[in-house]
Protein backbone atom coordinates (compact mmCIF):
# COMPACT_ATOMS: atom_id res chain seq x y z
CA UNK A 1 0.00 0.00 0.00
CA UNK A 2 2.97 2.31 -0.12
CA UNK A 3 2.75 4.96 -2.78
CA UNK A 4 5.61 5.50 -5.14
CA UNK A 5 6.51 8.20 -7.59
CA UNK A 6 6.44 7.24 -11.28
CA UNK A 7 9.57 5.28 -12.10
CA UNK A 8 10.69 5.13 -8.48
CA UNK A 9 11.86 1.91 -6.94
CA UNK A 10 10.34 2.47 -3.51
CA UNK A 11 8.20 4.68 -1.33
CA UNK A 12 8.39 8.44 -1.62
CA UNK A 13 11.19 9.64 0.59
CA UNK A 14 11.72 13.14 1.90
CA UNK A 15 15.00 14.98 1.66
CA UNK A 16 15.66 15.00 5.43
CA UNK A 17 16.71 11.80 7.14
CA UNK A 18 15.32 13.25 10.36
CA UNK A 19 11.70 13.42 9.17
CA UNK A 20 8.79 11.47 10.53
CA UNK A 21 7.37 8.18 9.32
CA UNK A 22 3.78 9.14 8.52
CA UNK A 23 0.77 7.04 7.52
CA UNK A 24 -1.82 9.00 5.55
CA UNK A 25 -5.31 7.57 5.17
CA UNK A 26 -8.82 8.42 4.13
CA UNK A 27 -11.82 7.42 6.20
CA UNK A 28 -13.89 4.32 5.62
CA UNK A 29 -16.66 6.16 3.75
CA UNK A 30 -14.56 8.70 1.83
CA UNK A 31 -13.67 7.75 -1.75
CA UNK A 32 -11.75 10.95 -2.52
CA UNK A 33 -8.06 10.58 -3.32
CA UNK A 34 -6.81 14.03 -4.36
CA UNK A 35 -6.59 15.13 -0.71
CA UNK A 36 -4.50 12.08 0.14
CA UNK A 37 -2.14 12.62 -2.78
CA UNK A 38 -1.80 16.29 -1.85
CA UNK A 39 -0.94 15.39 1.75
CA UNK A 40 1.50 12.74 0.62
CA UNK A 41 3.36 15.15 -1.63
CA UNK A 42 3.28 17.96 0.94
CA UNK A 43 4.63 15.74 3.71
CA UNK A 44 7.36 14.38 1.44
CA UNK A 45 8.31 17.93 0.43
CA UNK A 46 8.59 18.81 4.12
CA UNK A 47 11.03 15.91 4.59
CA UNK A 48 8.83 13.13 5.95
CA UNK A 49 8.49 9.54 4.79
CA UNK A 50 4.93 8.72 3.78
CA UNK A 51 2.80 5.62 3.39
CA UNK A 52 -0.52 6.47 1.73
CA UNK A 53 -3.18 3.86 2.50
CA UNK A 54 -5.66 5.45 0.09
CA UNK A 55 -9.39 6.03 0.20
CA UNK A 56 -12.22 4.04 1.82
CA UNK A 57 -9.87 2.31 4.25
CA UNK A 58 -11.69 0.20 6.87
CA UNK A 59 -10.87 1.15 10.45
CA UNK A 60 -9.38 -2.24 11.30
CA UNK A 61 -6.95 -1.96 8.38
CA UNK A 62 -5.67 1.46 9.51
CA UNK A 63 -5.02 0.02 12.97
CA UNK A 64 -3.32 -3.07 11.51
CA UNK A 65 -1.04 -0.89 9.35
CA UNK A 66 -0.16 1.29 12.35
CA UNK A 67 0.77 -1.81 14.34
CA UNK A 68 2.80 -3.22 11.46
CA UNK A 69 4.62 -0.04 10.46
CA UNK A 70 5.07 1.69 13.84
CA UNK A 71 4.84 5.18 12.31
CA UNK A 72 5.49 8.40 14.19
CA UNK A 73 2.12 9.82 13.14
CA UNK A 74 -1.16 8.84 11.47
CA UNK A 75 -2.91 11.54 9.43
CA UNK A 76 -6.62 11.02 8.63
CA UNK A 77 -8.12 13.18 5.90
CA UNK A 78 -11.73 13.61 4.84
CA UNK A 79 -13.41 15.47 2.00
CA UNK A 80 -16.92 14.00 1.96
CA UNK A 81 -18.19 15.74 5.10
CA UNK A 82 -18.47 12.57 7.18
CA UNK A 83 -14.94 12.70 8.58
CA UNK A 84 -16.01 13.36 12.15
CA UNK A 85 -18.37 10.38 12.36
CA UNK A 86 -15.89 8.10 10.60
CA UNK A 87 -13.05 9.51 12.68
CA UNK A 88 -14.78 8.71 15.96
CA UNK A 89 -15.12 5.06 14.95
CA UNK A 90 -11.46 4.98 13.90
CA UNK A 91 -10.04 6.61 17.03
CA UNK A 92 -12.10 4.23 19.15
CA UNK A 93 -10.26 1.35 17.44
CA UNK A 94 -6.92 2.99 18.18
CA UNK A 95 -7.95 3.46 21.81
CA UNK A 96 -8.75 -0.24 22.10
CA UNK A 97 -5.18 -1.18 21.11
CA UNK A 98 -2.74 -0.59 24.02
CA UNK A 99 0.31 -0.83 21.73
CA UNK A 100 -0.89 2.33 19.95
CA UNK A 101 -1.56 4.41 23.07
CA UNK A 102 1.38 6.76 22.47
CA UNK A 103 0.88 7.11 18.70
CA UNK A 104 -0.43 10.53 17.71
CA UNK A 105 -3.39 10.37 15.32
CA UNK A 106 -4.64 13.61 13.76
CA UNK A 107 -7.65 14.33 11.58
CA UNK A 108 -8.53 17.15 9.24
CA UNK A 109 -10.43 18.26 6.19
CA UNK A 110 -14.16 18.51 5.71
CA UNK A 111 -15.27 16.91 8.95
CA UNK A 112 -18.96 17.84 8.79
CA UNK A 113 -21.52 18.73 6.18
CA UNK A 114 -22.05 22.28 7.47
CA UNK A 115 -19.67 24.77 9.09
CA UNK A 116 -21.60 25.00 12.35
CA UNK A 117 -21.76 21.22 12.76
CA UNK A 118 -18.06 20.94 11.99
CA UNK A 119 -17.23 23.38 14.81
CA UNK A 120 -19.37 21.31 17.16
CA UNK A 121 -17.39 18.18 16.31
CA UNK A 122 -13.95 19.64 17.12
CA UNK A 123 -13.97 19.26 20.93
CA UNK A 124 -15.61 15.85 20.67
CA UNK A 125 -12.88 14.59 18.32
CA UNK A 126 -10.14 15.86 20.65
CA UNK A 127 -11.82 14.34 23.69
CA UNK A 128 -12.17 11.02 21.83
CA UNK A 129 -8.40 10.81 21.43
CA UNK A 130 -7.20 12.70 18.35
CA UNK A 131 -3.94 14.47 19.13
CA UNK A 132 -5.03 17.37 16.94
CA UNK A 133 -7.97 18.32 14.73
CA UNK A 134 -7.44 20.56 11.70
CA UNK A 135 -10.24 22.58 10.16
CA UNK A 136 -10.13 22.76 6.39
CA UNK A 137 -10.56 26.54 6.41
CA UNK A 138 -7.33 27.06 8.39
CA UNK A 139 -5.04 25.93 5.56
CA UNK A 140 -1.79 24.06 6.07
CA UNK A 141 -0.04 26.42 8.53
CA UNK A 142 -1.47 24.85 11.73
CA UNK A 143 -0.65 21.38 10.39
CA UNK A 144 2.93 22.45 9.60
CA UNK A 145 3.37 23.93 13.08
CA UNK A 146 2.10 20.71 14.63
CA UNK A 147 4.51 18.63 12.52
CA UNK A 148 7.43 20.86 13.44
CA UNK A 149 6.63 20.40 17.14
CA UNK A 150 6.28 16.66 16.72
CA UNK A 151 9.47 16.41 14.65
CA UNK A 152 11.42 18.28 17.32
CA UNK A 153 10.26 15.77 19.91
CA UNK A 154 10.88 12.66 17.80
CA UNK A 155 14.05 13.60 15.94
CA UNK A 156 16.80 14.70 18.26
Structural account:
The chain is of the alpha/beta class. The chain contains five helices and five strands, in the order E-H-E-H-E-H-E-H-E-H. It has helices at 34-45, 59-69, 83-95, 115-128, 141-154; strands spanning 21-26, 49-52, 73-78, 105-109, 132-135. It has a five-stranded parallel beta sheet, with helices on both faces. Strand 1 (21-26), helix 1 (34-45) and strand 2 form a beta-alpha-beta unit. Helix 2 (59-69) packs across helix 3 (83-95) and helix 3 (83-95) packs parallel to helix 4 (115-128). The two termini are 29 Å apart. Mean pLDDT is 87; it is low at 2-16.
State which percent range the strand residues make up.
Answer: 15-25%
Over all CA atoms, what is the radius of gyration? Answer: 15 Å
| Secondary-structure element string | EHEHEHEHEH
How many E-type strands?
5
Low-confidence stretches at least 5 residues in length (pLDDT < 50)?
Answer: 2-16
How are the strands of the largest sheet arranged?
A: 2-1-3-4-5
- Rounded average pLDDT: 87
Structural class: alpha/beta
Distance between the termini: 29 Å
- Biggest beta sheet summary: 5 strands, parallel
Query: Helicity range of the residues?
Result: 40-55%
Q: Count of helical segments? A: 5
Categorize the overall geometry: globular
